[in-house]
Amino acid sequence: MSAQKGFDNGMITAEKWQAIIENDAAYNDLFFYAVKTTGIFCKPSCKSRVPKKDNVRIFQSAEEALAANFRPCKRCMPTEPNLPDQEWIHSITNFINKNYHSKLTLETLAEISHGSPYHLQRTFKKVKGMTPVEYIQDVRIIKAKELLIKSDRAVTEISRMVGIPNTPYFITLYKKKTGETPAQYRQSKCNTEESESEITD
Ligand SMILES: [Zn+2]
C-alpha cells in the first residue's frame, strides 16, 4: 500500500517521534499515536509519559484509532476538537452571523478563514456537529422568521434579505427546516393579532 510521504499509516517517522517527545501541538490534526501496551491513544501534544517507541502505533484520525480498539486518553481527549479549532470555528460562525445576507459558500469561507475547504468542512462538523452550509441555512431561517413576524415585507423580499435570492428555493428550504411555508408561519403568528393581510395557502 503506498501512501503520501510522512503520512504512512502505522509507521513512525523521525519527525512524528520528535513531535511526540516534544508534545508538539502543531501536529495535533496531522496524526494520533496509540500505545500498544496500554491500549490508549493520544494527540501528539499529550503531556503523558513518553512511551517506548517500539510500542507506538500511528493513526491518521481518532476514528481509525478507535476502530483498532484503542481507547481515547482521558488527559488529552483525542476525540474532542482542539481548542484552536474551536476558536477558529467560532470566528467563522461569527462571520456567518454577520454576513448571512451575502453570498456565502464553503470556498469563500475557507478563503476568508485561511483554511482549505476540506479542512474547514471537517473541522466545522467536528466542532458544531453540522456542516457550514447547514449552519448558514439555520441562521438564514432564524432571520427570516424574525422578518416574517416583525415586518410586513413580501416573502420574495425577505428571501433576498436573508441571502437566498431564489424565492422558490427559499420556500422549499424554509418548509424543510420548519415544517411550514413562510406564508403559513406568518399567518399562524399573525392570526392572534388584528391583522387583515391577505395571506392564503
Ligand atoms: Zn493523551
UniProtKB/TrEMBL annotation:
The keyword Membrane does not apply. SMART domains: HTH_ARAC (SM00342). One of its GO terms (biological process) is methylation. It holds the Pfam family Ada_Zn_binding. Its cofactor is Zn(2+). Residues 181-201 are annotated as: Disordered. Coiled coil: none annotated. Residues 90-188 form the HTH araC/xylS-type domain. The keyword Cell membrane does not apply. Signal peptide: none annotated. GO terms for molecular function: DNA-binding transcription factor activity; methyltransferase activity; sequence-specific DNA binding; zinc ion binding. PROSITE patterns: HTH_ARAC_FAMILY_1 (PS00041), HTH_ARAC_FAMILY_2 (PS01124). This is AraC family transcriptional regulator of adaptative response / methylphosphotriester-DNA alkyltransferase methyltransferase. It comes from Neobacillus bataviensis. The lineage of its organism: Bacteria, Bacillati, Bacillota, Bacilli, Bacillales.
